Fold:
Amino acid sequence: MFGIANRGREEMPVIEDTLIILSSSGRADIARVEDINDERILAHGEVEYSVPIGDVSSYVGRRGRVFHYPAIEENVTDCKRIAALERSTVLRQITMFEKEPMEAAAKLPIGKMVMIGAAVLVLIIMLAVK
Structure:
């Protein structure tokens, strides 16, 4: 029963974006893209790279998009350094999370309490005078 329903259907291919980094020194690295936003592409290869999106050429392949980043050795080093900085910043933000103190959250409005107390006091005085 299930074999008949699935017959003729093709499985969807797994789509993976790839970043190819070619340095001027003749080295190359092929990295799997982890995240893309408006400013940068974050990819993992031999090391982690954070590459400016405006500096890459993009192509479409069978298995997904292919981004090409031609770079001099200094740029490759900078991309590695920026990726490490992004990772450490995120980890620092996660570990340095502080909850708000309970005193500030549970602070009662003193002005309202004084006004209500004064109204109750005037009401008691008015009832006692009658």
User: Anything to note?
Assistant: The chain is about 40% helix and 30% strand.
